[in-house]
Design a protein that fits this description.
The complex is a heterodimer of chains A (about 325) and B (about 230).
Chain A lengths: L30 E4 L15 E6 L8 H10 L25 E8 L6 E8 L8 H5 L6 E4 L4 E3 L9 H5 L6 E2 L6 E2 L5 H4 L6 H5 L5 E5 H17 L6 E3 L9 E5 L19 H31 L7 H14 L6
Chain B lengths: L11 E3 L5 E3 L3 H23 L15 H26 L7 H8 L1 H5 L14 H23 L2 H4 L5 H31 L3 H6 L2 E3 H7 L1 H8 L12
Antiparallel strand pairs in B: 1-2, 2-3
Helix pairs in contact in B: 1-2, 2-5, 5-7, 9-10
The chains are: A alpha+beta (about 325), B mainly alpha (about 230).
Amino acid sequence: MLDNPYLHNPDAAASNPPTEGFVENLGPGDLIRRSATEYLPPPRRELTPVAKLIDVSKCIGCKACQSACIEWNDTTPDIEENVGTYMNPHDLTPEMFTLMRFAEWVNPETENLEWLIRKDGCMHCADPGCLKACPAPGAIVQYSNGIVDFVHENCIGCGYCIKGCPFNIPRISRRDHHAYKCTLCSDRVAVGQGPACAKACPTQAIVFGTKDDMKKHAGERIADLKSRGYKNAGLYDPEGVGGTHVMYVLHHADKPHIYSDLPDNPKISPIVLAWKGVTKSAGIAVMGFAAAAAVFHGLFARANRVTAEDEDNAKRALRDDAPGGRA
Amino acid sequence: MNDTSPVERGDAIEPGEPPTVHRYRLETRINHWINAVAMILLVLSGLSMFHPSLFFLTVLFGGGQNTRAIHPWIGLVLVLSFILLIVQFWRANLWNRSDTAWVAHAGELVLGHEERMPEAGKYNAGQKFVFWAMVILITILFATGIVIWDQYFSDLTGIESKRLAVLAHSVAAIGAICVLILHVYAAIWVRGSFDAMIKGSVSAGWAWRHHRKWFRQLAAGATGQSRRSGT
């Protein structure tokens, strides 16, 4: 494993960037999956899996993460109308890769109103549905450290990634017809820094590091929450998509849906699996067989030709039947 | 008479030496070839987005972005053109009892014994199958194609509907491509068929051999709703 010395610290993202030389990683040799590519050479090394951990219980809803995301990715979301909550813009957009979603929930056990704020965005699934659905070679890639990234020059703008995603994350730009989502700041991670959102978070509700360290850190946070009465506190790292490289600490991990419809058990839709699985392989086989059978029969079976006898019969019939030539 | 399909507008026997039979009017032929070109372009662009091994076909359309953008517009051309074909062809393609008998003897045809087949009208049961299969499949392709035409209609439906639509679109397209292969193959295998769609007329012997009932109807003076008589 190629280790990144800066990752072994939950404060990695908040710290200043490394000043000494750093060998850039996340090159083409680090890919473990590439969309619409049947034969991908094995990666030349294996990077340490990374993860972003979002502790919902520590989030104060300040949206510094959104600002940092806009700043780093140099996007310019439209100025919008208030939609009745603190959420702004109204949804994830091609210009807004992460979004604070605000939910008001009355805890039936305590009758307390709980304000649940979840930073929504790409979860960087270990088994990414977007990549499975993508028809354009190399438009979606997955690095051996777990980051799922969109390569815009290869994107054809079809929107299949939207259909593949179990979390409803990618958005297609109507300006340049490319799909956009959180990159986990792959360009920053490649040079030893953490994501911009984690860097900006004032409460360190967002931390970044190796996935193992993040799970350990989450364990401490969950123990703390449990000691303070949140008996269902837990880590959201859903198995249905092979685990994710963006994880949540939830105070009510037994019901993720209360956090603005976070899926309880996300997995790639069986419809998408049927489309990209049996339909794709069997479809090509059926069409190929039909074409091959046509060529085979065409080459080896006798053509169906009109004979001189047919012509004679036709003429005879015309003489006998016709009331007088052309009707 | 409900066991016999009607003849179509413009169908007529042209006496002479040798006699020929008018089968498709110029308008119909132009319509058919617009349909054919649209269909082929749709197959090529659609397959390029269906299977990675065929993605290279996008170069024909100027890259992946252009392929994605142009495919639905070609689809619209196909739908409009195909509606015009339906208007012209539906009546003579209605299924009747002799078609069922024809299907029962289809094995004889494949083995080269067309003379043992029940006589066919303007269209035999195989052609009627191609027609109605395309009516159904193109309808499905159009409806599901609109649902996944994100450029204009992404707000119309939710993600789950789009997933179903893209699956149905793929399956219907596979079906349509197989029907297309059958259609083109039959037109090549039955020698002389291309004359009908290119020149518009066939030899009397061709009409006698493949569509004898239709030939007899014309010989007996049947007319489609011609421009002149209107019966």
